[in-house]
Amino acid sequence: MDVNLIFKIAAIGIIVSVLNQVLIKSGREEQAMMTTLVGLIVVLLMVIKEVKYLFDIVKSTFGL
Amino acid sequence: MGIYTIAGFVIAAVFLSLAVKSYRPEYSVFIGLIVTVLIVVSVLPDISRLFNFISDTMARSGTAAQWMQPMLKGLGIGIVTEIAADTCRDAGENSMASRVELAGKVAIMIVALPLAEGVLSLVSQLVNG
After folding, report:
1. Which residue on chain A is closest to B46 by alpha carbon?
2. DSSP assignment of B71-115, as one string?
3. B87-129: per-residue pLDDT in tens?
4. A-B C-beta contacts closer than 8 Å
5. pTM, 2 dp
6. Does A19 touch chain B (CB under 8 A)?
7. Residues 6+ apart with CB under 8 A from A43
8. CB-based contact, A17 to chain B, within 8 Å
9. CA–CA separation, B74 vs B80, rounded Å?
10. How many of the other CB atoms lie within 10 Å of CB of B74?
11. Minimal Cα distance from B17: which residue of A?
């Protein structure tokens, strides 16, 4: 829940992209697709946690 | 977070998002969503301070506090709907954005229903009385 989260997500994105390229170039395309999906799911879990925190705060502030 | 922190942080996030957009465009959408979450969470206490001031003023002027509730809830629904719709548009899904906006409009109308009933009962009192 701080500013470093953005840098973490960008770093994961760049790592996934690099790994993807390396795996595709060395011929292992299924593993490339799997690393892409795993990266996506990891970041999605991180982001959903923050979104849930936001919605809880909005609910309590506006009395919804 | 003061306004300077927020502005600087958003500008940095824009460049980070541009850096990953050409390789993995979904991570740009993630970055946009996280920026939204962080900024709204830091701005919400100030919004609630403003609302406390408005409701205190209304209480002092004699208006019932129950009429303030639908306005407040409508604002919250508007914020959440806007976040979801803008995330959809960032990802290029314009139709999903319009659907969630439709759901938000219906939700706000439902929340405003007590206000409409109050107005109608007041009008019927004036007409009959």
Report:
1. A61
2. HHHHHHHHHHHHHHHHHHHHTT-HHHHHHHHHHHHHHHHHHTHHH
3. 999 999 999 999 999 999 999 999 988 888 888 998 999 988 7
4. 86
5. 0.84
6. no
7. A9, A12, A13, B27, B30
8. yes
9. 10
10. 19
11. A10
